[in-house]
Amino acid sequence: MSDILLDVRGLDIAFFGMAGQRSVRDVSLTIARGETVSIVGESGSGKSVSMRAIMGLLPDSAYVSGSAKFLGQELIGASTATLRSLTGSRIAMIFQDPLTALNPLLSIGDQISEAIRIHNRDVSRREARERALQLLRDVAIPFPEKRLDQYPHEFSGGMRQRVVIAIAIANKPDLIIADEPTTALDVTVQAEVLDLLRRLCRQNGTGLALITHDLGVVAGMAERVYVMYAGSIVEAALVDDIFERPAHPYTRGLLRSLPKMKDQAKRLEDIGGTPPTAASLPTGCAFHPRCSFATDVCRKETPRLNSYGRSIAACHLGGSLPAFEKEIETA
Ligand SMILES: Nc1ncnc2c1ncn2[C@@H]1O[C@H](COP(=O)(O)OP(=O)(O)OP(=O)(O)O)[C@@H](O)[C@H]1O
Ligand code: SF4
Ligand SMILES: [Mg+2]
After folding, report:
1. Which of 22, 135, 298, 331 is deepest in the core (most CB within 10 A)?
2. For the sheet containing 232-238, what is the strand order?
3. Please, which pLDDT band fits residue 266 given cuts at 50, 70 and 90?
4. CATH superfamily to which 4-222 belongs
5. Atom of ligand 1 nearest to the CA of 277
């Protein structure tokens, strides 16, 4: 059996009315069984649309091409019935806002039971309720017997997201796609919820695609990282390499904007400027207007992904950038 759960190749996404400009360009990535992979980038970089495209969740105005295979099965262009049967059983999604994922009119117990029974018709109501209770225990909800009969509005944000995680893991999926799963929560709760998600995925051998705009979140969570900028992957690396020897100037900018780095380096500000949209994509390297290393070639030619050690990065100066520590010391 293949170890690759999700194999995305050359994913392109354009929206109607964008005069052919693509919001996502040539995205390729893989996620192996039991692996946690993070997709990081600023707002608008194409993280969510890429994952939604794979799951067939984009509106009709989106044109999607390329390939996304889940355990060898093509998802791009797959029928709604196929995608529906995979969603919730083999692939689960967790979104930023737990309230939109939960039905305000159904008790927590009924929602978890329904998620189980929709994919396993032979499970009785009683059995599903027992499993729901165990799932609430698994996600460390206090007084689970009592909580089972309560409604979403009786739960705090962090507790609601735990319920969403319980629903996501209910059918032991092979892959969970979590899109900014903790952004709506306060910082301490974020860490607890992420830790729980990681632990459950490791325990169950579930692959996890963690989408975040915060590189800080990635440190303790992921094994590999894809960095997206303006609709493309600009760097892909093992998590340690991302922090120790980032190969792309944009990744370096993201790292410098982390609070911890700021303290250490005593100066560093966020990356100046704003990311372009598909409609305002600059010529050459999309990052050049914000890049302190930009040269003439960067303004003219789009860099391709190349290997640098164990990482790949799309930068004309990839191999000849100063070492990252040196860049901080001298800045
Ligand atoms: N329905 C749509 N119609 C037109 N453009 C869209 C649509 N949905 C997304 N886009 C465009 O696709 C690009 C990528 O959006 P996406 O939501 O994937 O960003 P993101 O990386 O998830 O950002 P965030 O961190 O804010 O969630 C954006 O420029 C956005 O404007
Ligand atoms: S290609 Fe040029 S502009 Fe783009 S990131 Fe590399 S150095 Fe900066
Ligand atoms: Mg998003």
Report:
1. 135
2. 91-94, 175-179, 207-212, 36-40, 224-229, 232-238, 311-313, 306-308
3. very low
4. P-loop containing nucleotide triphosphate hydrolases (3.40.50.300)
5. 29
- Which protein residue has the closest C-alpha to ligand 1 atom 19? 44
The tens digit of pLDDT for each residue in 143-181 reads 999 999 999 999 998 899 999 999 999 999 999 999 999
Question: Is 119 a pocket residue for ligand 1 (Cβ < 6 Å)?
Answer: no
Tokens of 66: 């390329």
Which residues of the chain does CATH 3.40.50.300 include?
4-222
Q: Which of 214, 294, 209, 212 is nearest to 254 (CA)?
A: 214
Please spell the DSSP secondary structure of 167-231, one letter per residue. HHHTT--SEEEEESTTTTS-HHHHHHHHHHHHHHHHHHT-EEEEEES-HHHHTTT-SEEEEEETT
Instruction: Give residue-wise pLDDT tens across range 98-145.
Output: 778 899 999 999 999 999 999 888 999 999 999 999 999 999 999 999
Residue 129: what are its φ and ψ, rounded to 5°? Answer: -65, -40
Does the CB atom of residue 17 touch ligand 1 within 6 A?
no
Strand 62-70 versus strand 4-15 pairing type: antiparallel
Residue in 11, 40, 48, 234 to alter for ligand 1 test, most ligand atoms within 8 A of Cβ? 48
By the 10 Å C-beta count (0-12 exposed, 13-18 middle, 19+ buried), 186 is classed as exposed
Q: Where are the alpha helices (DSSP H) in the chain?
A: 47-54, 80-86, 98-101, 108-119, 125-138, 144-147, 157-169, 187-204, 215-218, 239-244, 249-256, 259-265, 296-300, 324-330
Q: pLDDT above 70 covers what percent of the chain?
A: 94
Pocket mutation for ligand 2, best pick of 232, 235, 316 (most atoms within 8 Å of C-beta): 316
